[in-house]
Records
---
Amino acid sequence: MEPYEIIRNLRTEKGLSRKEVAEKVGVTAQTVYRWENGMSFPNDASLKRLSDLFGVSVDTICGSAPDLICQCCGMPLEDSVISREPDGGLNEDYCKWCYADGKFTYSSMEQLIDFCSEHLATESWPAEQIRAHMEATLPRLGHWKKS
Ligand SMILES: [Zn+2]
């Protein structure tokens, strides 16, 4: 799908008029009309506002497959699990389980690993394997590199 079709689809899915989208994004209805007909493309600031408004990543609007992972736990970030800032904006760095209301759920890597190895363990993926996998991959993620 082309980005202009995606924008139109997302808008109709949300039941919004062009005027409503225009008001929320801070452009004119004419501009939204141009986006939806492939005559122009939203700039970065507008893309970010569209992403917040529609609750999908900027990548989704641009038509590129999202290739985001949570920078805290490493899970793939599909649109439905992307975290939000307290003001409602999307935070594409984290999943909603690791980050919510401006706060991180886990204060240390050990805490996260303990939680996951306890709660995600199955017969085919025992706790020790989860622990080993996480201990190997988490230190490469942005959140843990910072701290
Ligand atoms: Zn996460």
---
Amino acid sequence: MQDSRVQDLRSFVALLESRGELVRIAREVDPKYEMAAVMAALEKERKAFIFENVRGARFPALGGLLNKLERFGMALGYPRAEEHFDDPAFDGLLEKAKAHALKPQTVDNAPSQSVVIQGADINLHDLPVPTFFELDSGPFITAAIGTTRNPETGVQNVGVYRTLILGPRRFVINASSLSDLRRHYASAQERGEVMPIALAIGVDPAMLTAAACKLPPDHCEYEMAGGLQGRPMELARCITSDLLVPANAEFIIEGQVDFGERVENLLGEFAGQYGPETAPATEVTAITHRPDPYFYTIMAGRNPEHNTLGNVAVYGVQRSIEAALREALPGQIEDIHVYMSPGLGTLAHVVVSINKVNDGQPKEIIDKAFAGGGHIFPMSMITKRVIVVDSDIDVHSMDDVQWAIWNRAATEHKFMVIPDVQSWELERAAKEGQKSVRIGIDATMDLDDVDKLVRPITPGADEIRLEDYLGNSRGKTAA
Ligand SMILES: Cc1cc2nc3c(=O)[nH]c(=O)nc-3n(C[C@H](O)[C@H](O)[C@H](O)COP(=O)(O)O)c2cc1C
């Protein structure tokens, strides 16, 4: 059977264009705000796009390729992606790729190194890099994968990191406190070592997806990308360092970290708030690219492509919270759903259903849940709210959970507010010392009220198959 996985960015662009899902914008756009405003409008329509004429830039910009989940399915060869590709399917694909990771191969004559620019010819302003929001520190590269070596082990790491342009040959690649890159920066600085770094812009969807995944330290995302592609990634050695970068990328930007300058890089982030981060600057040592490269850009902020790709990083966190809770509450959990989505902010909202045996049980569960280890983070640091519901509530439907909250809780002790909890850096509303509140909600029926609050159920409704009543054609008169 022919492998339908997309092998590079260009074939994906061609596929989307052939299906009418990509638009080309010939009109000149200003990279400061105007481009982002048009991108935001296109994202609402879930269109992929190419800006052919960005003021002051030498190259076209494209984006929106992965602004809905089905596009990941299409790119990664999931059968009948449009009908069936959902979060569990995606998570399953990622887990399979981790289990079938493939070592990359090094190649000569990489397309991404067809043109080499060094020295005074390097000019980052040639790239069509947007400035997205009014308070942003400047133009940001948002769709690049960045790579460094662990200074202690030499193993290469890859992640997606926003990058603020500071000048023609200088930028700052951001690293959150959770990232391996943050650890690499700290380690190289402590050892007083030179630290090469490289960005690849315009890689294939499997590589971008693997880079967004949170793998354990010293598990290389190139190997996982190979697992997703079903063939080893082809890598080329950088011109100015020994880092390996994707051979099929559109652009590679090579640089050396300058620990002498730390720079704040303020950007409107994925949950719809500004993120004031700081990181060391990087001096660019070379830019290489294909003969006719596309610059890939992702609309920053709480927007579909950023959020869909961002969710990839979150699957692992959700799984680890769920496992930690099942460990902390053996035998008590009927079902569980860990919500983590930009619509609910940067923290998790955990819903646990139980078969309640006494009215004190939900509070005990809430206390234990917040006290748990959480595997990656302490639970209380990453979880804003724990809600306990009865087992007739569908934990996987926030609508049903909301219904339970507003229909089964009528005394103040069912709403718990826990003050002054240590939160993580991305909770931007946190107060001094990164302290914030946590909320517990007991949305179960009080045992005394069970008869009064019974839900109306039509016996047999769950088993009905409408086609048994409508014949073969829905909508036609029933036989
Ligand atoms: C569009 C986008 C932008 C991101 N920007 C950053 C960033 O600036 N800094 C960061 O540390 N993580 C960022 N992330 C998340 C990381 O890519 C992700 O957590 C990854 O697993 C980090 O890899 P690492 O732990 O191997 O360094 C971003 C993710 C996406 C999808």
---
Amino acid sequence: MANNSYKPALQKLLTETTFKDYPGDIEKTLVAFDVSDLAHTFVDTAFLISAITFVGEERWLQGKNSTKEILFSKFIKKLFKEELSPVRFLHDFFEESSLEGIAQASRNAVLIEDAVVNLISKKSKEDLRIFSTTTLKLMSELFELEHQLSMAKQELGLHLGLSLYRTFDKLDLVFNLDYLADKGMVSPIGNTERLYEGAGVGVQSGYSTAVTALRYLNLKKGSRFVDLGSGYGRVGLVVGLMRPDIEVIGYEYVPHRVHIATTAAQRLDIDKHVTFLVQDLSAPDFKIPVADTYYIYDSFSEDTYQHVISQLLKIATERKITIVTKGNARQRFETPEQKPHWSSPQELDNGNLCFFRSH
Ligand SMILES: C[S@@+](CC[C@H](N)C(=O)[O-])C[C@H]1O[C@@H](n2cnc3c(N)ncnc32)[C@H](O)[C@@H]1O
């Protein structure tokens, strides 16, 4: 199928009132889609699910703040100019539909998204890699739109718009990142490290964080990227898929997480440049390798942070490096002792994501 020609078929699936045979009815349509169409369908449906929830909330909010009856078509028109612009092809459908029609489309979107994941999981390594890379590129555009819209809204003092932080989490199913593998996990006796047993998706960086970091980092061609405490490997997989020229290494204490991340890299055929290794980063005899970029998301105990940061400082005396922090990890680089060694952080996502560059 050529670019965009999947859209009428997708719209038909979205507006179907019942599927007599699920997933058969949906699969009958999807088999005609090529890998790129499947990626577009995955992104459109995932986006739509979040967008429809947002439309419902907006309508409720605007209704609450207004004494006049809101004209539905006017309200929808405005949303399609901004938040809903990525699914503009559904504009007429939204305008003509009742709220129930839109709710039906949202339910169908969930079913279609699941059918795409199911179908793509049976494809070859190459198809899986093309699907994942295309999906991430499309997501990157949407995250950028979200970023621009939220900055504009913030400037005008308006409440924040559509959030896509968890929108594409089903990509985990394509990568087979099974967080339930933590079940029954016991920390080694006397372990003081922060291993986040059973915390699952909540302590993995959102796809939006990893993709946004990559968009703004401008990584040098052929450089090396290290995730310190790589968990189930989301960040490394995203970097490895979007930048085949970058060498990625993830170090993680918990063996089954490393195993799952490694298996995903192998399935996606990116394991030549993406490696995950079992490593306790608090071990005195382990030396963090030289790299250009280091990623840290709230990984360590107090002592381990000191141990890790002293090594990073040493590396920074020999070459310019960038530390990417997510969440509270930034605070470790903003203490009076650390401040002189790093640039003031470049902040994204309201400071949830920061880049510290060595002088
Ligand atoms: C908050 S998670 C972040 C995972 C991943 N970097 C991401 O952003 O999606 C932190 C990870 O660091 C790991 N970790 C904590 N202490 C560690 C240590 N001493 N050595 C290696 N990994 C460690 C934990 O097991 C956990 O999986």
---
Amino acid sequence: MALTSDSEFEYPLCPVCSSDDRSTEFTFEKPYTVVVCGQCRMYYLYPRLTELAMLRFYEQDSYFQGGQSGYSDTGYSDQENALRSTFRRLMKRLAERKYTGGDLLEIGCGYGYLLEEARPYFDRRVGTEFSGEGVRLSEPKADAVFAGGIEAVPQEMKFDCIIATQVIEHVYRPLDFILQIRAHAKPGATVVLSTPDMGGMLRKVMGSRWPSFKRPEHVNYFDFRTLSGVMRDAGLVGLTNIPHPHAFPLALIASKFGARVPGVLGKTNIWVPATTVAIAGSVKDEGQS
Ligand SMILES: [Zn+2]
């Protein structure tokens, strides 16, 4: 399947504030650039694939296997150890803040590693996933997995906690996405969104070699200010930064600097702080003012 015919690209307005005032900040292989919005300072991919072309791209099972995942250049399952460690730490941070318990929904559950690590913390764990391979591998790790995105969750299902980790950078209409999440939240529920941190140390150190500059699939680049802004616009309250260090295999980081790390050493987890921004917000209780 050819991904790069001209008709498959669109030149979007700012995905957060719809402004067409932008300037180019990073230039990648043609036709991709990352621009910054002159109004709200949101960074986004410009141009981007049309949503239809992108959905066809995700439907290929090779998406997770062929180095296209948001996490690695070596495929998703190679990163299992690093991802599980990352999610275990996130669960601990959420439990400390009393955000766990009851029913959990994860949007974009990949191979189900987070849902499995969440088992001690929730009564029921449900996921959604676009990749057929991901659905198949997640199902044994969860109570239910729906094929697709948030719209695949039956309307009547409501949750105490909804997590979307490394998803909103893929989403074409971020505000609509959070509003859809809210429709599945019980009163007082917690919504946790995490995404590569455009304002983070790793991005600043690595410049345009930052591994999260993923074309074509990462269309939005948030930092704490822009992500908390869109969550607030969606009506979430009590927005809180959750420390979310991310483990990466050493080999992956070294490869970005053109270095090679031999064998076992390459699988060593390197904890990178402040490369991911995670924010928790609450859906107001009816009785709350
Ligand atoms: Zn904007």
